[in-house]
Write a structure and sequence with these properties.
Blueprint (H helix, E strand, L loop, with lengths): L6 E5 L4 H12 L3 E6 L2 H11 L4 E5 L5 H15 L2 E6 L15 H22 L3 E10 L12 H21 L5 E7 L5 H10 L4 H10 L9 H12 L10 E4 L7
Parallel strand pairs: 1-2, 1-4, 2-3, 4-5, 5-6, 6-7
Helix pairs in contact: 1-8, 3-4, 4-5, 6-7
Length: 252
């Protein structure tokens, strides 16, 4: 098993990617702490995972106090942490820049940028030397996308935070990388499709598929496969990298 004896923390742990990755980590022998803002969703995720090696905690990633609390809980459960999947994020509203509400912009930046920053700040001291941090960005973190100024800006910012952390953590042999999914089957994309084409979300789905050279949305299991590789010792010489999994979308 690729993660035997390792411990992991996953933010956004009750979301589709979070649960899929937690399940894969558990199957590979890891102990896992999933973190999400909504306590009932955390409990539902734990019930779905059905493992004594899975633990959960309700915490708001935008709160410094809550972030310190989940870092402390991880150390209480595991001692030092081997893997941190800094994954929590939201898509936010869909609107042109000139119509985008200030409060919607701030809400996206709070989760997607502040949450990632706080996670790095509080989890790096809790990590084992030689560990791995994976931050979830997006294909939108490498290109532009009309109607999503907050999401695009936030996911570009995640890359910047990753690159700084990769440099700072290198003396401890801690690897820090980003994953950049294209459209993924799940609630976030269904909401985005409805925002892009409220009268016909299926048309938005087809529009996104047409931009993907491999012709379909990505499955959460496929994201979990990539994150597991980055979490494992197989990626021991990969750090500061932007790992794209987008079915060819970023290629134009």
């Amino acid at each position: 098993m690729r993660l035997a004896g390792k411990s992991a923390v996953i933010t956004g742990g009750s979301g589709n990617i979070g649960i899929a990755t937690a399940a894969r980590f558990l199957a590979e022998g890891a102990r896992v702490l999933i973190v999400d803002r909504d306590a009932p969703r955390v409990e539902a995720a734990l019930a779905e995972l059905k493992s004594n090696s899975a633990h959960g905690l309700a915490a708001d990633v935008t709160s410094a106090d809550d972030t310190a609390r989940y870092a402390a809980e991880a150390q209480k459960l595991f001692g030092r942490v081997d893997v941190f999947f800094n994954n929590a994020g939201i898509a936010g509203a869909v609107a042109p820049t000139v119509d985008y509400r200030d409060e919607d912009f701030d809400a996206v930046m709070a989760v997607n940028v502040r949450g990632v920053f706080l996670g790095l700040k509080h989890m790096l001291p809790a990590m084992k030397d030689g560990g791995s941090i994976v931050c979830t960005s997006s294909v939108a973190g490498l290109r532009g996308s009309a109607g999503m100024p907050a999401y695009v800006a936030s996911k570009h910012a995640v890359v910047g935070l990753m690159r700084v952390a990769a440099i700072e953590a290198a003396p401890r042999k801690i690897r820090v990388n980003t994953v950049h999914p294209g459209p993924v089957q799940g609630d976030m994309m269904r909401g985005l499709e409805g925002g892009v084409a409220p009268a016909n979300p299926d048309a938005a789905h087809e529009m996104f598929v047409q931009r993907m050279r491999l012709g379909r949305y990505i499955e959460t299991k496929e994201i979990a496969d990539l994150v597991t590789f980055l979490a494992s010792d197989e990626s021991r010489m990969i750090t500061g990298a932007t790992m794209v999994i987008d079915a060819g979308m970023a290629g134009g």
